[in-house]
Amino acid sequence: MKETNFNAYLDAVQQFSVMQEEPLWMLELRKTALAKIDGLELPVFERVKYQRWPLFEVPDLFSYEEGILLAEDFLTGDNDAPRVIQVGNQTVMEQLPMKYYEQGVIFTDIFTALQEHPDVVEQVYMTLAVAHDEDKLTAFHTAFMTSGLFLYVPKNVVIEEPLEALYVQNSQVQNSWIKHVLIFADTNSEFTYVEKYETIGTEKNTANIIVEVIANPGAKVKYSAVDQLGENTTTYINRRGHILKDATIEWAMGVMNTGNVVADFDTDLIGEGAHSAVKIVAISMGKQIQGIDTRVTNYGRNTIGHILQHGVILDKSTLTFNGIGHIIKGAKGADAQQESRVLMLSEHARGDANPILLIDENDVTAGHAASVGRVDPEELYYLMSRGIPKQEAERLVIRGFLGSVIAAIPLKVMRDGLVDTIERKLSK
Question: What is d(CA 12, CA 15) in angstroms, rounded to the nearest whole number?
Answer without folding.
Answer: 5
